[in-house]
Design brief:
It is built from one helix and 27 strands. With 383 residues, the protein is mostly beta strands. The termini are far apart.
Length: 383
């Protein structure tokens, strides 16, 4: 079998010639984009199945080259990796890298190619052990991945700033998220997965994150954001804090926009058992309001709440909370639309742009749930 720098053997090309695809019954979590991506074998990090194969075809933009990071290659050892193997091929130059397995691992965690097209072939016969493989990639435009860190500058002795490029698809890789976005994340967390949770990047795109490592705090409460729930954490010596622009600046998301006017499709006029009136009007929708909140008229279809910010603003996210009253009321999911003039409305579709994005809301009437707008919304009115 060929080793790194050897010539490409027959049968290593993917069945499909389309870029950014995977084929075979041994494919695990996969998200491939032209600029970055993540791929894994089936069941990873559990034992991969017998007699399976998967072929991924990676395609970067013309003029760029691919860099592959081996997060984990744990395939049962065998002579020349005959029982299970990972083989990478550059069809443009006819060069092959591998085969790799547990007794023939890549010489470095990062493979720098000179090609914009690479096929990744994984196959297995009968075996007993092995987690399989986890590989991420980025283009030469984004050399850092979540396995390498570029230190920018140390701020005081207790703070170190660095920047990391996170590939697309890191949200669903194995590992826990710890921490609260307002407090930072434990440095034992999966870094890029935590960045998705905090709303710094979108999982379907990936991107650069800038963060600082600071002196820790004693307890992290669990938090829910962007469809993920973090876990309550105990004592930590350090924490990671994500920043929008620079390590020396505070988080941009700390700024709360002022709402000039609240409007709604309807509101509930409640008469309680004592005959007392209670108006669940739109103005009561502000997050800091004590007592009951806004609620639409019971039975109302397609209810909406509208916020007038007074002028065109850059909106990076939203926080929702339930009624926190005697009634256990909360919104479980919602869509967002925006307008610059209050007449023409545009549904929010996120970074994919294909269909209206449905945000995951609250699971009870007590906790706050934050969701990020990636990319941000520029508008005066949010509905």
């Amino acid at each position: 079998g060929p080793h790194q720098g050897g010539k490409l053997r027959q049968g290593t090309a993917c069945l499909s010639t389309l870029p950014g695809v995977s084929a075979g019954n041994g494919c695990g979590h996969t998200l491939l984009t032209p600029h970055s991506g993540t791929l894994s074998s089936k069941n990873y990090p559990g034992t991969y199945p017998n007699h399976t194969m998967c072929c991924w075809r990676l395609q970067a933009p013309p003029g760029t080259s691919l860099l592959l990071a081996f997060g984990d290659v744990d395939l049962e050892p065998s002579d020349q990796c005959a029982h299970s193997s990972l083989l990478l091929a550059d069809p443009q130059t006819g060069t092959a890298y591998g085969p790799y397995c547990r007794n023939s691992v890549p010489s470095a965690p990062l493979l720098v190619t000179n090609s914009s097209t690479v096929t990744v072939l994984f196959n297995s016969t009968s075996h007993r052990s092995g987690r399989g493989l986890l590989v991420s990639y980025a283009t030469s435009q984004h050399p850092g991945t979540h396995y390498t860190q570029e230190h920018i500058s140390p701020d005081p002795p207790l703070t170190v700033c660095f920047s990391v490029y996170c590939p697309a698809g890191c949200k669903d890789i194995h590992g826990d998220i710890w921490g609260n976005p307002s407090q930072g994340y434990r440095d034992t967390s999966v870094l890029c997965k935590a960045a998705v949770h905090a709303g710094v990047i979108a999982d379907e795109l990936g991107g650069q994150v800038t963060l600082s490592r600071e002196k820790g705090i004693t307890l992290y409460e669990s938090a829910f954001a962007n469809g993920l729930r973090s876990k309550r954490g105990s004592l930590s010596e350090k924490r990671l804090v994500f920043h929008k622009v620079c390590c020396l600046l505070s988080l941009a998301c700390d700024d709360v926009l002022e709402v000039v006017t609240f409007n709604a499709s309807s509101w509930w006029h409640e008469v309680d058992v004592l005959g007392q009136d209670r108006a669940w009007v739109a103005e009561r929708a502000a997050l800091s309001t004590t007592g009951h909140s806004w609620a639409a008229e019971p039975g109302a279809e397609a209810a909406w709440l509208e916020l007038d910010l007074g002028t065109r603003r850059n909106v990076t996210g939203i926080i929702t909370k339930g009624s926190s009253e005697q009634h256990d009321y909360y919104v479980t999911s919602y869509r967002i639309s925006s307008s610059r003039d209050g007449k023409n409305w545009r549904p929010y579709r996120g970074s994919s742009g294909q269909e209206d994005k449905v945000f995951e809301g609250n699971a009870d009437n007590q906790g706050e749930v934050s969701n990020a707008f990636i990319p941000p919304i520029v508008a005066r009115y949010i509905r």
